[in-house]
Amino acid sequence: MELSALxxxxxxxxxxxxxxxxxxxxxxxxxLIRARVExxxxxxxxxxxxxxxxxxxxxxxxxxxxxxxxxxxxxxxxAEAIKAIERTTNHDxxxxxxxxxxxxxxxxxxxxxxxxxxFACTSEDIxxxxxxxxxxxxxxxxxxxxxxxxxxxxxxxxxxxxxPMLSRxxxxxxxxxxxxxxxxxxxxxxxxxxxxLDEVELLGKINGAxxxxxxxxxxxxxxxxEANAKEFIESLGLSFNPYTTQIEPHDYIAxxxxxxxxxxxxxxxxxxxxxxxxxxxxxxxxxIPGEVGSSTMxxxxxxxxxxNSEGNLGLANAVMEHMANKLPISRxxxxxxxxxxxxxxxxxxxxxxxxxxxxxxxISKLEANAQRLGEDLNNAWEVMAEPVQTVMRRFGIExxxxxxxAFTRGKVITRDAMLEFVDQLDMPQExxxxxxxxxxxxxxxxxxxxxRKL
Length: 454
Hints:
CATH architecture of the largest domain: Up-down Bundle
CATH class of the largest domain: Mainly Alpha
EC number: 4.3.2.2
Strand content: 5-15%
GO biological process, one term: 'de novo' AMP biosynthetic process
Family: Belongs to the lyase 1 family. Adenylosuccinate lyase subfamily.
Distance between the termini: 52 Å
Low-confidence stretches: none
Catalytic activity: (2S)-2-[5-amino-1-(5-phospho-beta-D-ribosyl)imidazole-4-carboxamido]succinate = 5-amino-1-(5-phospho-beta-D-ribosyl)imidazole-4-carboxamide + fumarate; N(6)-(1,2-dicarboxyethyl)-AMP = fumarate + AMP
Keywords: Lyase, Purine biosynthesis
Mean pLDDT: 96
């Protein structure tokens, strides 16, 4: 059976393939091979520029252009050629080396440099930098949609900044807020994670078989190989890790995935809240012609986008949690357990991207139901017990909390009952008038201000 969207085992490449296509050039087998080719070529060029490696003179403009083109014009067909070589070598990185040598033989100048391809490198020197390049590109791809999610929620905050809403703590009626302020809470939390996402350093190393530049120094003992490695790694847009074993220890990958997981966890919280707000009627959903909510109940407009988002965020976090817990652990100077795990770097990102797109679709269909919000507020005069008992404290009235507790707890409180209670209080008339002018819809503190200044 040929691989297609219908026959793919994972919905990442099947049902949701259109949502994850931007990640394919980055995290696929092709993406990994492409990154390896880039690292190998750039390392060869770095060596050629070093004045103390006299056996490898600086490349001419023509030779440099030929090498650059190998990287910039790398194709799926090139990746397939490398896979064909791998069937003989049974070693994926060595296959890249042989592919490059085959390309270079056609040029007289480059043919003299063949044995400087993969010079002093262990496979992990190439792999860890390739993973860094993949995560660098993947982070930017993912972040673009993460920002859209944050901005969409921030837009809800602004749009509904002044729309009063009954709060619920422990599921019970509580001091009112505004719908916009509750959206602002989420947007602010997401924005913090986006900032932290940018701050994660993507690390790399190119220091040989066990991290000591053994082969480098045996061949060119006069070269400052650590300085050369730092310069090279930073030229790739990565940060230099000076202390490693054979492998870059992957701590930064755990840090990166942990930030994405926190963003996702906040979004799960949002998905569940919106689901609940839809359930109680605070939000309506725009209907789309032709869509079906239930196969048997024609009236249904289900919050499927937020449910889809929540489910895929859970999958994303499960994958990234395992990777964050596993990758920093390697026996002695290395074992191979990280290799098979690292091939799944894009899976957590892909499930995240699916979830973000679903959340965005759901947000685009939301319509606040001001009438329903107002009904709940008008039926919750018990929440006015808080301002009343607080003002009573100001004027020295004894046991204000206890008096309001006895008056309201477990009872249905009407507007008239609350106004009557305030009228009998021993406090200045001005204070009474102020309390009597308040309603559950107006008792929102500075919620609107907070929502607008996000």
